[in-house]
Design goal:
The protein has 149 residues and is α+β, with helices and mostly antiparallel strands. The protein contains 2 helices and 9 strands, in the order H-E-E-E-E-E-E-E-E-H-E.
Length: 149
């Protein structure tokens, strides 16, 4: 994803949130110390329970933010994925539960979405309400999501 489009996505997310308090690093920022490659648009570190949004040079444009991931038996799979689709008010039929601001990145239904930061999920990445909105407005289909354990 192009750097300009990412910055516009962060700006759009900020406008939608009615705030400018989002973390955006200057253009001169160095690559962040994340465990993901510079190819990632979103990075998830399962062992650190942290996620970031990144630009085309591997520099962090948002985060790290706290996450929760899959509980035993429903572990979030490590690997490299692409965003498949987004749904602002998705409802999980499998778990009869809301998944606000969903950004799906696996073919098995795993997504970033607003959720509890104290309880593990059925494989999805739970984000705070603010972070979920930012991820939703920044990421687009085709963007690369790297999950490391």
């Amino acid at each position: 994803m192009g750097k300009l489009r990412k910055m516009l996505g962060v700006a759009a997310g900020s406008a939608a949130l009615g705030t400018t308090a989002l973390l955006a690093l200057p253009a001169t920022a160095q690559a962040a110390p994340t465990p993901c490659s510079a190819n990632a648009d979103a990075c998830i570190d399962l062992s650190a329970n942290t996620s970031w949004l990144m630009d085309d040079n591997g520099a962090v444009i948002y985060g790290g933010v706290p996450i929760t991931s899959g509980k035993p038996g429903y572990e979030t799979p490590p690997g490299t994925f692409q965003v498949t689709y987004k749904d602002i008010d998705h409802w999980s039929q499998a778990y009869d539960a809301p998944m606000p601001y969903s950004v799906f990145f696996t073919t098995s239904g795993i997504a970033f979405h607003e959720g509890s930061l104290t309880q593990q999920s059925h494989g999805c990445i739970h984000l705070s309400p603010e972070a979920a909105k930012t991820y939703y407005y920044t990421l687009n289909p085709g963007d690369v999501v790297e999950v490391v354990s």
